[in-house]
Amino acid sequence: MIWILFSAVLPALVLVFLIYRKDQYRKEPARQLVKAFCYGCLAAPASLLLSTPAEAVGLFTLGTDGVAAGFRTALFGAALPEELFKLAFLWLLLRRNPDYDEYVDGIVYAVCVGMGFAALENIGYLFQNMDNWGTVGTLRAIFSVPAHFFFAVAMGYFFACGSFGDPARRSVNYALALLVPVAQHTAFDWLAFCFGTPGILGGLAIALFFGLYILMAKRSRQRVRAHLDRDREIMDAPHLPDIPDLADVPDLTDPTIIPDLPDTHSDTSVDA
Question: Relative to the CA of 80, which of 9, 250, 256, 260 has its CA 20 to 30 Å away?
Answer without folding.
Answer: 9
